[in-house]
Design brief:
Layout lengths: L4 E8 L3 H14 L4 E6 L5 H12 L4 E6 L7 H17 L2 E4 L7 H14 L8 E6 L8 H19 L3 E6 L6 H22 L3 E6 L5 H10 L5 E2 L9 H17 L8 E3 L6
Parallel strand pairs: 1-2, 1-3, 3-4, 4-9, 5-6, 5-7, 7-8
Helix pairs in contact: 1-8, 2-3, 4-5, 4-8
């Protein structure tokens, strides 16, 4: 008999509008049991409660899908640890999918956001993707490699003159964040001078929260940019990403023993 797999879609806690988009996405991509779990800086209570609810609903296993930007983020690492704890606690197989990383669907979303801000000929425009970025310095190199892959994809798909990815290191200490913002502003000023046009700035952020609504507009004040603060949600490509990841997780359950955790590998960048 086929296993009944419950989906837990894990995301940061966003504003009401983005949370509603996540709930709609969850309802659209699965006709089976599913839960949305918000994850904060310290608490995993929502993830645990969602998994318990799915077990109570008769699920044989749990698929955790972290709808977060990078698999090498502290949040993604906490999701993996939560999966291991849940597998032991509930005696169920738990599969963890990779985060969004440099998936083709993410390139599609960011390209569409950039095109929406382009005034005319994209081939003369520069785009800067602005992400949250890592907390630890040790993680910066892998984030930068992913950023280069995503930026190249947006450039090729969108036909832009140049595309780069930058990070504001939002959860790092104030001096680290301030240095990151200075670097971001310098990159934008350089691109504006090189192209003679306003630079298109796209948030590489899943949903709207304080970073997209408040901090980025302050960080970018006074620059020659086109910026509307729209995060990646909502977009049909994100629904396709969830469907694809869920299918991979269901396949991974075949032969997985109760009480074990399967961490699906992230694609190389």
């Amino acid at each position: 008999m086929a296993q009944r797999v419950g989906l837990v879609l894990v995301a940061h806690r966003y504003d009401r509008e983005s949370t509603a988009h996540l709930r709609t996405l969850l309802a659209d991509v699965t006709d089976g049991p599913g839960q949305l779990a918000g994850i904060g800086h310290t608490s995993l209570d929502d993830v645990t409660a969602a998994a318990r609810a799915l077990r109570g609903d008769g699920c044989d296993g749990i698929a955790l899908l972290p709808m977060i930007v990078h698999s090498e983020s502290s949040t993604a690492h906490r999701v993996v640890q939560a999966a291991r704890d849940l597998a032991t606690m509930l005696g169920m197989a738990v599969v963890v999918a990779p985060a969004l990383d440099a998936a083709a669907e993410i390139v599609e979303v960011l390209t569409d956001r950039a095109h929406a801000l382009a005034s005319d000929d994209a081939s003369s425009s520069a785009v800067v993707l602005v992400g949250h970025g890592p907390t630890r310095d040790d993680d910066l190199a892998v984030w930068e490699r992913t950023g280069m892959t995503v930026a190249a994809g947006v450039r090729d798909r969108g036909g832009f003159a140049r595309v780069r990815a930058e990070f504001v290191r939002d959860d790092a200490g104030p001096p680290v964040r301030a240095a990151a913002v200075r670097g971001l502003r310098e990159c934008i000023a350089q691109d504006a001078m090189a192209t003679g046009r306003d630079v298109i700035v796209v948030p590489w952020i899943v949903g709207a929260g304080r970073l997209a609504r408040e901090r980025l507009p302050e960080d970018l004040a006074g620059l020659a940019i086109r910026f509307d603060g729209r995060p990646m949600l909502p977009h049909p490509a994100l629904e396709r990403w969830v469907s694809r990841q869920l299918a991979a997780a269901v396949t991974a359950f075949q032969g997985a023993a109760r009480g074990t955790t399967v961490v699906l590998p992230r694609a190389p960048t």
